[in-house]
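Dear support,

I submitted the protein below through the web form. The confirmation email said the job was done, but the results page showed an empty box. After a refresh the structure appeared. I'm attaching both so you can tell me whether what I see now is the final result or a partial one.
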Amino acid sequence: MIDLLKPLPLGLADATTVAAEVHSQAGASDLVHIATTLGLLLMASLLAGLASEFLRLPKVTAYLLAGLFLGPSFGDVIPHEHHAVLEPLTKLAMALVLFYLGTLFPFDQIRRISRRAIPLSVGELTFTVILVTVGTFVLGMTAAQAALLGTLAIATAPATTMFVLRETNAEGPVTSLTGTLVTLNNLIAVVAFELVWLGIEVAGGDASGSMSETVLLLVRSLGGAFLLGLIGGLVISYACEIMHTRRWLVLLVGASALMLGLSETWELPYMLVFLVVGVVVVNSSSGTQKITAQLDSIGGLLTVVFFSVHGSELDLNLLWNVGLIGAGYVVLRSLGKVAGIWFMASRTGAPVEVRTWLGPAMLAQAGVAISLAATAHSRNPTMVGEVQTIILGTVVIFEIFGPLLTRAAVLRSGEMPIANSIHHTFGTPLGALRNVFTRLAGSAGLLSKKQALSERMRVEQVMRRSTEGIAESADFNEVVHYVEHSHDNTFPVLDEDRCVVGLIRFDLLNQAFFDPHSDHLVRAGDLATPPEVLLHPAQPVRDAVELFRHTTDDCVPVVTDEAPHRLVATVRRSDLTSLLIRDRKAGLS
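What the results page shows now:
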């Protein structure tokens, strides 16, 4: 398809030829307006999202499947030309996700997690690159093609993975390390791709110009991306300081669209640009949470567009084309990520949940790998053609099963309350009609009301296991650091056996902030008050509901049934509130 954004030739004959070519390429797309395509994708995604709640699927998978059924594999109702028209929206959606990923990296947090995340990232990348490169070479790819596949295997789909994590409301070491490793993966993938491509050109004698010119082009690309991201991040931070929050959404979308356009015009890797923007904003702005909240207001719509359009581009026929090498790529990439993280996690003493579930959470692959493969194809179609086919074909597997594995990882690791995975929604039309007559019969005394979900569940199904607590001997600075990275206002204090010796409440901590001697004299045990009540995993949820009615705390520790009563989790008021709201909406409580 011809690029309509390029200037038209000046000659009359050439202009006529171009116009005829554009008209002939339009074809069937003239019969379907672009607004119709967008409406079909959104409505199909809406229905798929409702179905996903009944089937307990991540919404990402549902949106992809909605697009897939409208794409060439099944309905084939989306004109191919419309993908090019919608491409700026999908790239903007990806850019905003990468922006958000960058905001997860304040400098103090980078220093705190680098000791845990970097060894895991090194293990994952090393195993993945070696297994995929060597394996695909043995299966018949050339050395250059195998090296490219090994580099592309690094990338993890940021939009897919982060959307699942935010949808599940998961928190804990697996969740935080997943976000960190996704960012590192894509940052390293972009840089490594350029370096590997340079090596391929030099080895094949295809490098245009001298070696110094090629290196200079690489430095220009990566350096330009860093510079544009730095300037864009500083401009956004400064503008948010002087503008009212009502104008922030226009500012953020406008600045993001402008930087995306400049990146494409100057041929800079836009993914790297927006990662840098996010890092700069989180370290230079006092309103990062408000900024990400503003992005969420439009990010939801763009996310649906991104996944549905992406799904409509998937072609199941490519699965047959990739053959044995494609199957080998799927197995080797999956094995590399899981085994690499398990190996390094075992050597560094990481928790068993991290060793077991962090690898499966990292398997989704889509936008970044596709973009890099397309870039390579534009540079050398002959050599990269088969590589691009393998990436496009295997993306179908990784994008459908990747979200399922990410969701399973945070659920099995205890960072997503089991209640969040239980289907309980407004209901189907038939189900809603049945509920109406059930309530009517119950009110007339003809039928007993169905027991509410919150009445049938136990504490272990709503508790969050990803709780570290504060050591009793921790100094004031350590307490403040823990509180700074927590979403609660009540914090359990533990002795050496992980038994709860007290709770630190934010109002008491707030008073200590004004004491100039707190940094040196106060310990966590001094700030704690004895816990009035604790919960046990086997207790019914109604006990927790009753407890929260008589306390202002927003979380309550859950301890083992047997002595000594060690901390195993916490129950949050917000999680119980969500459960009760779902009960009420379904008319079951």
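Response: this is the final, complete result; the empty box was a page-load delay. Confidence is low (pLDDT under 50) at residues 1-29, 423-427.
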